[in-house]
Amino acid sequence: MTRVEKATRIGEQLDALYPEQPIPLEHEDPFTLLVAVLLSAQTTDKKVNEVTPALFEAAPTPAKMAALGAKKILPYIQVLGLAPTKAKNIEALSKLLIQRHGGQVPADFTALEALPGVGHKTASVVMAQAFGVPAFPVDTHIHRLAARWGLSQAKNVVQTERDLKKVFPPDTWNRRHLQIIFFGREHCPARGHDLDACPICGWAATKKRKAAEARLGGAPR
């Protein structure tokens, strides 16, 4: 079975499991999504969703967020990892959105990645979820599962993204990204995972992969 054939079968299973793909981070518009995604680095979506309602009530626009400033943003997000840096980046990107983009979030990868604290993954999430532009953001769940399923042997998320874009059609990228995350969280943990009993790993993982994870107790690569 080729990688494309395997990806097609995996896609069919994911569509059956997750015909709807709710966006995990609560938001109202591209700006609040951008801020939520930035806040989600090194913390859980659940935790982000607990702090953003109060923050967005106080500052729902770039102008109001810039006026709030990093010192006043920080108490809203203090419980999150890297909070001081995130607060500074949110203030800075809000100011740049006003200065460069008329207070609007640009639907452009290069412009987004030029904003403080916004890397390729964050830009990809915003492009996919706010603007519907085909993108394939790769997080640790997707990186791990792509390896388990034999769709990529990449050592980093950049190459994993390239590999997945080769085997999944562009019009499926946005939903596949979310579906794989949901599957990883619900069915495919990093450790202690029984690959043989998994509805996808059971047939997609190679014997070599199963043996390797068995030796390591289901550890990620």
In short:
The chain is mainly alpha-helical. It has helices at residues 3-17, 30-39, 45-58, 62-77, 83-101, 109-113, 120-131, 140-148, 157-167, 173-187, 201-204, 207-216.
**What is the rounded Rg?**
19 Å
Task: Tell me the domain tally.
Answer: 2
Quote the CATH topology of the largest domain. Answer: Endonuclease III, domain 1
Number of strands: 0
SS element count, helices: 12
Our estimate of the beta-strand percent is: under 5%
- The helix/strand order is HHHHHHHHHHHH
The helix-and-strand class reads: mainly alpha
> What can be said about the biggest beta sheet?
none
The end-to-end distance, rounded to whole angstroms, is: 23 Å
The residue fraction in helices comes out at: 55-70%
The chain-level mean pLDDT equals 94
CATH H-level superfamily title of the largest domain: Hypothetical protein, domain 2
Low-confidence stretches: none
CATH architecture of the largest domain: Orthogonal Bundle
Supply the CATH class of the largest domain.
Answer: Mainly Alpha
Question: Which outline best applies?
Answer: elongated
